[in-house]
Amino acid sequence: MLTHPRSQRWTFLTGPDLPEDIRLFAEMSRFSVSIVSGGTIALPGPGQRPGLFRAWVHSPCDAYRPTGRIVVEAIRGCAAEHTRRRQRVGWHMPDDISAASRVLVPDRPPRLSR
Question: Do residues 24 and 31 make contact, with C-beta atoms less than 8 angstroms apart?
Fold first, then answer.
């Protein structure tokens, strides 16, 4: 999962199970989300200064990628919860699509920092 601080977008790397569907692309675009299930994408490197262009929210530690369907459902769930909170509280809460990462990233032992 990547964040793009300047453009306030998110990118999710997934397995190749999503169909090429313009309606799904448009829906995710409204949430400022891109889903990459194959192809080429520029990833943040270890020497890149954080916060400029893109940064890992959860950097990969192996080849695991969640299915695209699970990612889409998690994003829809976060968006629905965001809408419910806004309606209940009556003011705009900050976007937190990163909450989807709790659903998408399986429990793994913590990585040791070097």
Answer: no
What value does the CA radius of gyration of the chain take, rounded to a whole number of Å? Answer: 15
Work out the burial of residue 39: count CB atoms within 10 Å of its CB; fewer than 13 is exposed, 13-18 middle, 19 or more buried: exposed
Question: CA of 102: how far to CAs of 22, 31, 45, 109, in Å?
Answer: 27, 18, 23, 14
Phi and psi at residue 33, to the nearest 5°: -125, 140
CA 63/CA 104 separation, integer angstroms: 14
Residues 3, 54 contacting (CB under 8 angstroms):
yes
Per-residue pLDDT 10s for the chain (114 aa) are 788 777 888 889 899 899 889 999 999 999 999 998 877 777 777 666 666 677 777 777 888 889 999 999 999 999 888 888 777 665 554 455 555 555 555 444 444 444
Side-chain half-sphere CA neighbours of 54 within 13 A: 15
Q: Which uninterrupted H or E stretch holds 55?
A: strand 55-56
